């Protein structure tokens, strides 16, 4: 039985929506309380009302954010704000964006990924998950009987066979949907309904190792929903809706797959920078531009970090790689070579920085601002994890340290919904 299959997605009805760009939102786990308020105000049909409904002090078992999401969902379906597609499709999904002055295009597609063991693929995670986030998604998806936002997996396709299907069949066709988000990323969707062309895509995916890039909590929730559903049926065909999870697939061999680093801001850093000279070559840098350029350049061949505190900006470069196996106590050689693991072992653990003392950010400017405002004593800027490292860690059946990767751009929530009933 194939690992991938098309589905008839639930979409926003464009005849009912004035501006599609106003109704989508990012995945729930990167939305701040302020952003939640902003999305509520942006449009009465913004997907935030399903993806991350507001809580109330008066919430109870019968009236809470999950029941309100279900009521909204049912109302939108009844009014035709949302409608189901007329046929099972694969949905090609293009994201156009700029980063550091350069233009990028990430291609992918949305389909259903089979969860049970006879799919012929291995689905490999690389991050740990947290119980609270899984409980939240499980409660929401169960209440709506729908998968609201896809997991994000990478596949291998050096020859670009799937991209060729898109170029041949859809590149010149009118898109089904277009929208621009707050980061000025343009999101474009095309429908592929032709069973023969869909089978070509299925043939590429079957038998592969697939790597979860984003959506680890959603993946585990989909498996939990499947386990609960199997308890209620006498015999499973393996093809019931609960056996699948809505998934965004992208080519890990593409040059436009961006993995951003996630930086560390620490509340307490009780030593002088000079005391780090035992392990690091330390250079003071005058400007932020030079600092980031030098860090990226050093990271090509060395383990390097940017450090910012009240003394200024510093570039730290590890002196002796031979010490890594001694200092990093856990994991395989691939794990021990991660910059996040090295930073923890060589610096944070040495000065007594605990997990509670660390705040994470993907924005270097936010790191500088946090230190300048006085609530934090230091910030550490990291280089990106490579695709090769992600693959190695996942294949080792290991998990990276928390907040190690940030895939950009995010897949918008609300583009497609998978109705599981």
Strand content: 15-25%
The radius of gyration over CA amounts to 23 Å
Summed up, the domain count is 2
The best one-word shape is globular
Helix share of residues?
25-40%
User: Uncertain spans, ≥5 residues at pLDDT below 50?
Assistant: none
Structural class: alpha+beta
Question: What does the main sheet amount to?
Answer: 9 strands, mixed
Helix run count: 13
Distance between the termini: 21 Å
Number of strands: 21
Average the pLDDT over all residues and give the rounded result: 94
Explain this structure.
- This protein has helices at 33-42, 48-51, 65-79, 131-144, 161-169, 195-205, 216-230, 288-298, 324-327, 333-336, 339-348, 364-372, 387-395, and strands spanning 4-5, 10-12, 82-84, 90-99, 102-114, 122-124, 146-147, 151-155, 177-180, 186-192, 209-214, 244-251, 258-260, 263-266, 280-285, 304-309, 312-318, 358-361, 378-381, 406-408, 418-419.
- It is α+β, with helices and mostly antiparallel strands and 421 residues long.
- It has 2 domains: 4-258 and 409-419, no CATH class; 262-383, Conserved hypothetical protein from pyrococcus furiosus pfu- 392566-001, domain 2 (2-Layer Sandwich), CATH 3.30.1760.
- The chain is globular.
């Amino acid at each position: 039985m194939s690992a991938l299959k098309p589905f008839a997605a639930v979409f926003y009805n464009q005849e009912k929506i004035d501006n599609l760009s106003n109704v989508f939102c990012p995945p729930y786990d990167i939305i701040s309380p302020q952003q939640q308020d902003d999305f509520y105000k942006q449009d009465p049909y913004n997907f935030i009302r399903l993806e991350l409904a507001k809580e109330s002090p008066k919430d109870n078992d019968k009236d809470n954010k999950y029941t309100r999401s279900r009521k909204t969902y049912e109302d939108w379906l009844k009014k035709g704000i949302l409608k189901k597609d007329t046929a099972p499709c694969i949905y090609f999904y293009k994201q156009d964006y700029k980063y550091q002055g350069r233009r990028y295009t990430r291609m992918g597609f949305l389909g259903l990924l089979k969860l049970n063991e006879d799919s012929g693929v291995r689905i490999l995670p690389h991050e740990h998950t947290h119980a609270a986030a899984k409980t939240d998604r499980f409660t929401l998806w169960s209440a709506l009987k729908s998968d609201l936002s896809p997991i994000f997996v990478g596949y291998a396709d050096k020859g670009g066979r799937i991209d060729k299907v898109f170029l041949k069949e859809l590149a010149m066709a009118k898109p089904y949907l277009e929208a621009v988000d707050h980061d000025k990323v343009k999101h474009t969707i095309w429908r592929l309904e032709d069973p023969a062309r869909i089978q070509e895509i299925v043939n590429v995916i079957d038998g592969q190792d697939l790597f979860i890039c984003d959506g680890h909590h959603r993946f585990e929730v989909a498996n939990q929903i499947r386990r609960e559903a199997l308890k209620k049926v006498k015999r499973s065909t393996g093809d019931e809706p609960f056996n699948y999870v809505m998934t965004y697939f992208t080519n890990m061999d593409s040059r436009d797959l961006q993995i951003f680093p996630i930086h560390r801001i620490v509340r307490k850093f009780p030593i002088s920078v000079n005391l780090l000279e035992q392990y690091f070559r330390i250079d003071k840098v005058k400007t932020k531009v030079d600092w980031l350029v030098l860090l990226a350049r050093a990271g090509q061949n060395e383990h390097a970090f940017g450090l910012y505190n009240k003394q200024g900006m510093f570039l730290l470069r590890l002196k002796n790689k031979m010490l890594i196996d001694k200092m990093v106590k856990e994991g395989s050689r691939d794990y021990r070579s991660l910059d996040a693991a090295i930073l923890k072992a060589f610096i944070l653990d040495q000065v007594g920085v605990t997990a509670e003392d660390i705040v994470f950010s993907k924005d270097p400017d936010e790191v500088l601002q946090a230190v300048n405002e006085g609530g934090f004593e230091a910030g550490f800027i990291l280089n990106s994890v490579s695709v090769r490292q992600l693959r190695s860690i996942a294949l080792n059946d290991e998990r990276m340290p928390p907040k190690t990767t940030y895939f950009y751009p995010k897949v918008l929530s609300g583009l497609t919904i998978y109705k599981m009933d």
